[in-house]
């Protein structure tokens, strides 16, 4: 579910200061482009996000 996916995203970003609403929107868009909102997708989103900063 989306709630589980976003909980996973939140745990990955626990030590990063970022607007949670914006983060969730970007995470959802990332997942929709990949047609998956699994834990693996959350990790891939996290890796892409931190590589850009």
TrEMBL record:
InterPro entries: DUF815. This is ATPase. It holds the Pfam family DUF815. It comes from Pseudidiomarina aestuarii. It comes from the Bacteria.
């Amino acid at each position: 579910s989306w709630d589980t996916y976003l909980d996973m995203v939140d745990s990955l970003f626990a030590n990063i200061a970022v607007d949670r609403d914006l983060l969730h929107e970007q995470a959802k868009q990332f997942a929709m482009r990949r047609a998956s909102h699994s834990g693996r997708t959350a990790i891939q989103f996290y890796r892409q996000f931190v590589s850009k900063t």
